[in-house]
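Technical annex, item 7. During the second reporting period the consortium partners agreed on a shared format for inverse folding records so that results from different sites could be compared directly. Each record opens with the tokenized structure and is followed by the designed sequence. A conforming record, contributed by the partner at site C, is shown below for reference.
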């Protein structure tokens, strides 16, 4: 069984990072910081980000990150995917660093949407400070 604890983050692609920054800070009250891929992390709580906005050629949803509890929860999630015949990719250290997690695995649902199962968020020990 996959014991998902919550939606960890959403990843989106945009043609206009400045518009996202303005919307996040001015309307949503989120703080923004540059992400390693040249995009933006949008922060609303103790996590380094809840939305990762990456530059691209379209304005679109990219992925949902689903949090499980610890290594055991992660292993159980992978076993559930494998048992259901769902192909997944165990992501590398560079990917995990961009998502600020210990481990991540990605897979696609029947409609083609990307999902990422993650655990072990890394903290930057910064407090959330809304620009609003």
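Designed sequence (site C submission):
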């Amino acid at each position: 069984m996959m014991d998902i604890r919550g939606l960890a983050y959403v990843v989106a692609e945009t043609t206009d990072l400045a518009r996202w920054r303005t919307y996040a800070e001015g309307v949503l009250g989120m703080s923004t910081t540059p992400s390693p891929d040249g995009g933006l992390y949008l922060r609303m709580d103790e996590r380094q980000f809840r939305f990762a906005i990456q530059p691209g050629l379209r304005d679109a949803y990219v992925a949902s990150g689903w949090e499980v509890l610890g290594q055991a929860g992660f292993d159980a999630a992978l076993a559930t995917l494998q048992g259901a015949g769902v192909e997944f990719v165990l992501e590398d250290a560079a990917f995990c660093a961009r998502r600020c997690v210990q481990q991540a695995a990605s897979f696609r649902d029947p409609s083609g949407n990307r999902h990422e199962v993650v655990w072990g968020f890394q903290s930057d020990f910064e407090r959330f400070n809304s620009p609003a």
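The helical segments are 17-28, 70-83, 93-99. The chain has a mean pLDDT of 95. All partners now use this format for quarterly exchanges.
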